[in-house]
Structure prediction request, 213 residues.
Amino acid sequence: MDLIYKAKNSNTINLYAYGKIKECTKNVSNSFILDNFGIFIGTKEELNNWLFENQKLIDKYYFEYDNKIHIPQISEDVKVDVDAIIKRNVKLSAKAIIRAGTILNHNVFVGNDTIVDENVFVAENTKIGARCHIGNNTILSNPKDSEQRITIGDNVIIGANCIIASGITIEENAVILPNSVVLKDVLMGQVISGSPAKVIKRKTSAKQNSLQN
Prediction:
């Protein structure tokens, strides 16, 4: 039974699996296990055998392939929901929470205690600081292969349904209100809103509040 049928010419496959992963057999040489989420790296034959042996414990899986090995760095106390997608070279710091439907592309960094809500798209090379909150359906978007990465400082709130353009820097303690389109850098403590987003006030306190969608 060939479960990885598309990767016929690949040397190395990265398999991402969801389910009762901690109960699965661990006969794959390169693997990372986090509660109901696992990353397994190996040859087509090796991973095909693993899937066949454990298929009753697996709810969902997908894969990508190249000829290099890239293992995301994920702290043990991170929470990753089912249907979130964590790609290569991602680093999730302590107590980060990644909700269902979110996609973290290659080389993304997420700081400690940061929450990324449902169905958020985070482009390659994005850096998100500590204690941030990013609302549902927000897009942090770089053009493919762009070197203009998005940088988000500590204690930043980004509301639901926002779009952050390529190369933008959002400094610490800033607030982006829901449905905003951010085309310019945001300075420390600024509160912005609109499409395109404009400054409406400046926070008088660095205290971080919970995000209201």
Q: What stands out?
A: The first strand starts at residue 12 and ends at 19. The CA atoms of residues 151 and 169 lie 5 Å apart. The chain has two domains: 12-66, 73-199. The domain at 73-199 is CATH 2.160.10.10 (UDP N-Acetylglucosamine Acyltransferase; domain 1).
